[in-house]
Amino acid sequence: MFSKPERMIAWRYLRSRKAEGLVSVIAGFSFLGIMLGVATLIIVMSVMNGFRLELVSRILGLNGHLNVYSSAGPLENYMGLVHRIEQIDGVKNVRPMIEGQVLVTVNNVATGALVRGLEREDFATKPILSEGIVQGDLSAFGEDRVAIGVKMAERLRLAPGDTFTLLAPKGKASPFGTIPRSRTYTVGLVFDVGMYEYNNGFIFMPLESAQKFFRMTNRVNSLEVMAGDADIADRIKEQVAQAIGETAQLYDWKQANSAFINALKVERNVMFLILTLIILVAAFNIISSMIMLVKDKGRDIAILRTIGATRGMMLRIFILTGASIGVAGTLAGAAIGIAFADNIESIRRWLEGLTNTELFADEIYFLSQLPAVVDWSEVISVILMALVLSIGATLYPAWRAARLDPVEALRYE
User: Fold this and answer.
1) 220 pairs with which residues across the strands?
2) pTM, whole model, 2 decimals?
3) Do residues 59 and 194 touch, judged by C-beta distance below 8 A?
4) Strand 163-167 versus strand 172-174 pairing type
5) Residue 132 and residue 182: Cα distance in Å, rounded?
6) Mean pLDDT in residue range 198-222
7) What is the maximal distance between C-alpha atoms in the chain?
8) What pLDDT score was predicted for residue 281?
């Protein structure tokens, strides 16, 4: 596409000379702008992908794809409903559960929490829980021994073997009024699922103990339906709704966590738009540097034209000169962005150690580690967008160079 003389002349125009020092400086800043824009865009998109993937995987690791909640009191004869749902093709398992708000008191310190009662086998089959045990053992989960999150354990200074008291929101009636219902439990194990909300405010309890505490003997207030994956859950949602009829309400994981998903989607789109402007500004710098280069090289262009260079040749020379800046900046930015995204957690820890500050607070960002997932289709899209903007920025200056009249350029020489 480009002949050897065209490549040679374009390379000479790119090299810094004393007379064109300002042009070279602007070209250098254009290179840096495109490089930083592409790198930042890849890093931010990778972090956004990582956030979404980690949040969804942890949410689905702790909650069902579909959740059946009682619309009028606890679910009576829930095992029949469980069997009906399990007959649906695509349903992996159905777990009966009890959920309820409680007040945790330890040494005159009280805090709110959410109790989730489930069978010990169901607790063991949740990898995010069974593999996230940091203190204690799975065998300690039973009777009046419960599992609490690592942040709650730190906040309340609890360890396996320690006891605490739970107060139910609904008390029992007596001649002297309503008396709060309370019961003492022992910490059987401490878990860390990597998500602040669960580590700080969830208590997992054996289903039988939860039924006693919330006075739901042989009853539950929710069913957790797990499908093969999230896509299958979307397809079987209508069948599950028909199976439960009017006895309960059905919510999928997207409805239950719509705030998180929508916030991530909006933030991702806005960040993409804002960071794309960085590349666009760098492309305008290419235009300005190329226009100045064409002006400074007017005499050279005229001489080349008089010795036989065609307008097409001049057009290709200046397109190659400007595009080289964009291509080099794009490739360098892509390499830096991918390398940074692949090692972002290590870089984050190094920066925290260097500045002695917490850059990624898990109570704010919900996750205990900074995630990043490089989506190669997005990387290719960013690279192509940067290349198109960079090459497009050279068209007008190159057109002006090709249209330059040699007679006018040499009139006063």
Assistant:
1) 75
2) 0.69
3) no
4) unpaired
5) 29
6) 89
7) 112
8) 83
